[in-house]
Amino acid sequence: MIHIFDTPGILLTALAEQIVVRAKEAIEKDGRFSFVLSGGSSPKKLFELLASVPYKEQIDWTRVFFFFGDERYVPADHPDSNYLMAKKALFDALNISPGQIFRMKTELTPDAAAQAYEDDILAYFSDKPVRFDLVLLGLGDDAHTASLFPHTSVLHEQESLVKALYIEKVMMNRITLTAPCINQASMVAFLVYGPSKAEALHHVLEGDRDIEKYPAQLIRPNGGLLHWYLDQSAARQLNRK
Fold first, then answer.
1. 187 in a domain, yes or no?
2. Kind and range of the H or E element at 203?
3. What is the model's pLDDT at position 68?
4. Domain residues for 75?
């Protein structure tokens, strides 16, 4: 489902309200809410909004467990760390217990960090299927999402939940959830705003299927919901609105 809003502010408010609804439903059903966070600049404003009135008062945050869709291979206190951004914008403001936060352990080697994160996910779900309640994703100007970059081997991964890879384009190791892992979620929500995303968004949603060039096309939840939260400038090249 595609949702288009006039401004990023209205978009972020609508998505925050959706997160509240999903969190309440999951907590009522299962006693907890598993929330996979996206990195980058776009979700920072969303996290700050969730940590503010009235949203911080509408969710039982002691029952929310946080995961990450991907991570840059930098120390946890590095300015480029997705974890550090979420810590400053969300975790600290809400006094989230460290036991509720599953960060990717970049103090390990990339492959060991990926395996450790997969182990953490499997332990969290225990004997139940791996099925996150909500996965938040962004979209890069090159149509990547999480760290599923164009023309990388991880796009064809079918077995692992988490993989490490070196990405030539950014000259950095990354650790990412794989597409099959993301596609097991109950709901996936893309947060995309700004004119720089318009061309990539058009290709992902309306172009020919080519996962090598447009990796975000891989995201098709199996029995779950897929929502796109867009502003007008990001959606300007879409034919169907």
1. no
2. helix 198-206
3. 98
4. 2-175
pLDDT in tens, 91-104: 999 999 999 999 99
Asked whether residue 200 is assigned to any structural domain, the reply reads no
Residue 218 is assigned to a structural domain of this protein:
no
DSSP calls for 167-201? ETTTTEEEEEE-HHHHTTSSEEEEEE-SGGGHHHH
Residues of the chain with pLDDT under 50: none
Q: What is the pLDDT of residue 241?
A: 59
Q: Tokens 């996206």 — which residue?
A: 38
- DSSP letter assigned to residue 101: B
Name residue, tokens 């384009």.
169
Between the alpha carbon of residue 146 and those of residues 10, 69, 73, 163, the distances in Å are: 24, 6, 13, 11
- Largest alpha-carbon pair distance within the chain? 45
User: How far is 84 from 90, CA to CA, in rounded Å?
Assistant: 10
47 lies in some domain: yes
